[in-house]
Specification:
The complex is a heterodimer of chains A (about 120) and B (about 375).
Chain A: E1 3-7, H1 11-22, E2 27-31, H2 34-44, E3 48-52, H3 60-70, E4 76-80, H4 87-95, E5 100-103, E6 106-107, H5 108-119
Helix pairs in contact in A: 2-3
Chain B: H1 5-18, H2 22-38, E1 42-48, E2 53-60, E3 72-75, H3 79-85, H4 88-93, E4 98-99, H5 100-108, H6 113-128, E5 133-139, E6 142-149, H7 160-211, H8 218-237, H9 243-255, H10 265-268, H11 276-282, H12 285-293, H13 300-308, H14 329-344, H15 355-364, H16 372-383
Antiparallel strand pairs in B: 1-2, 1-6, 2-3, 4-5, 5-6
Helix pairs in contact in B: 1-7, 2-7, 3-6, 5-6, 8-9, 8-14, 8-16, 9-13, 12-13, 13-14, 14-15
The chains are: A alpha/beta (about 120), B alpha+beta (about 375).
Chain lengths: ~120, ~375
């Protein structure tokens, strides 16, 4: 079973997204902060990471940078907050090697498609 | 006990009349559905015109999923949105809703390929949201929102009267949202008109300042001081003036000298003391001001401020020689602010007093020319360096 790691500081989001993907036969682990995702990286060995940008502590972009420093082959999809079109953060995510960049509110079918595509 | 849907609807309708905030209302309705009809979860997707998409605004459920607010959306090309926008619910089921079971049965029937594909897409959306029923809500044929419902806790199917209940609620929701929008528009329109009115008043006040060269900025200073005094009075008395009083005070402050429009500039700007005749002309300005504003019935209280701002506490003022608390409060407040500003301003024939000197003079005439209670509030403001 594929391993998906969801990093988001909102408990509701973690719970909903985890249930959503578990139903689709994906093994899901969640982390409430960037720091925790870095700590559990070696243990979880995710095939794909969904990473929220706006988080307390180290934000998503910094987390992305550090994750990639640990393992440059990690596949990471960035999830932005409710105000999209922040060109600067988009550019940074690309520069640090994020696979994709999606914003809330999400079309759930699109989220599913992107995740499944990248887990293959 | 079976739920009395008619009664619940009436209750919901009453709530809608009372609550003008659409967001709050929708939350209440979703909560009502989850509690009364006992479903695993319920959510509402609302149309956002600027993005032409439907965003999941509320989602509640003690047992089922709770989708975080603002997490999920459906664009206008989403099959579930298209399903209702293209009225497939009516064509396929002769019904204003999409029920998962019914739709599954329908898929086995001989329907057109296009319809089949759209219905399949719509059903998949229901699966994504763990919903078994979707009820649209329209306003004037426009899809405003979708109500999504999870399974009943009893595991039974929704009955026709329950679906009717949801449909009625959904259409009420649409109406309430529309009303809330109209209400907001109306409020914005009112605010706009109000600003227009205030700016017109300010322009009028500027006309007086322009005429009376030596009192430049006087009206705006008196207005500011008057409002400060009123706020302090309210704080000391521990009972606030209502907003209307403050607004009238604001207007009266701006327009207190409007009557000077009727006084010749040669008198207003005279470089020396006024003779008796000239002084008598100047004393006409409160009455002229009140007469100018009199046709504006809405300004009744503000006019009192304009008319009586030269009355004195001991009855020695003009135009009517009113005494003590017979002088309207609005006028007594302006009077203190006006006196202070007049004393500290340079005149053609004399230099203005320093603020300390003026404050001492104000204290000296307290209870004679000026209302002592207002002077006391003013003096407190002065001591705190707020003047």
């Amino acid at each position: 079973m594929a391993n998906l790691l969801i990093v988001d500081d909102e408990a509701d989001v973690r719970e909903f997204a985890a249930n959503f993907f578990r139903k689709r036969k994906i093994n899901v682990t969640t982390a409430p902060s960037g720091e925790e995702s870095l700590n559990m990286l070696d243990k979880v060995k995710p095939d794909l990471i969904l990473l929220d940008i706006k988080m307390d502590g180290i934000d998503g972009i910094e987390t992305l940078k550090r994750l990639k420093e640990k393992n440059k082959d990690l596949k990471v999809i960035m999830v932005t907050g409710r105000k999209p079109d922040d060109q600067e953060s988009f550019e940074k995510c690309r520069q640090f090697g994020a696979l994709d960049y999606i914003h809330k509110p999400l079309e759930l079918e699109e989220l599913e498609r992107i995740v499944l595509k990248n887990l293959k | 006990m079976a739920l009395d849907y008619k009664k619940e609807l009436e209750g919901a309708a009453k709530t809608m009349i009372l609550v003008h905030e659409a967001d709050l209302l929708i939350k209440m309705i979703v909560r009502t559905i989850v509690q009364k009809v006992k479903v695993s979860h319920a959510g509402i997707l609302l149309h956002y015109g600027d993005k032409d998409s439907y965003v999941l605004t509320v989602s509640r459920g003690p047992k089922g999923i709770k989708i975080p607010e603002g997490f999920a959306r459906m664009d206008s090309d989403n099959p579930l949105i298209r399903f209702f926008n293209e009225h497939l619910d009516k064509k396929l089921f002769n019904d204003g809703a999409l029920s998962y079971k019914q739709a599954k049965r329908c898929l086995r029937k001989n329907i057109g390929a296009k319809e089949k594909s759209l219905l399949k897409g719509a059903l998949y959306q229901l699966e994504i949201f763990d919903a078994i029923l979707c009820v649209p809500s329209y306003f004037q044929n426009k899809l405003l929102g979708l109500l999504l419902l999870g399974k009943k806790n009893s595991g039974k199917d929704f009955k026709p009267d329950e679906i009717d209940f949801f449909a009625a609620l959904a259409s009420d929701v649409a109406m309430a949202i529309r009303n809330a929008e109209l209400f907001k528009d109306l409020q914005l329109e009112l605010e706009k008109k109000h600003r227009l009115f205030l700016h017109t008043t300010i322009a009028l006040a500027a006309a007086i300042d322009a005429k009376d060269h030596y009192t430049h900025g006087h009206t705006s200073r008196v207005t500011t001081l008057s409002l400060e005094i009123a706020k302090r009075l309210a704080a000391e008395k521990k009972e606030g003036f209502d907003e209307k009083f403050l607004e009238h005070l604001h207007i009266a402050g701006l327009l207190h000298d409007i009557g000077k429009i009727g006084i010749p500039e040669s008198i207003l700007n005279k470089n020396g003391p006024l003779d008796d005749k000239e002084a008598a002309r100047i004393k006409e300005h409160p009455i002229i001001g009140a007469t100018i504003l009199n046709p504006i019935k809405e300004l009744e209280d503000a006019i009192l401020g304009v008319k009586y701002h030269h009355e004195k506490f001991d009855g020695s003022g003009y135009p009517e020689g009113l005494k003590g608390r017979n002088i309207p409060l609005i006028a007594s407040i302006i009077s203190v602010a006006d006196t202070f500003d007049a004393m500290t301003t340079d005149r053609p024939y004399r230099r203005g007093l320093s603020k300390d000197e003026a404050m001492a003079e104000i204290n000296r005439v307290s209870g004679k020319q000026l209302d002592p209670e207002i002077v006391s509030a003013f003096s407190d403001l002065y001591k705190e360096g707020l003047i």
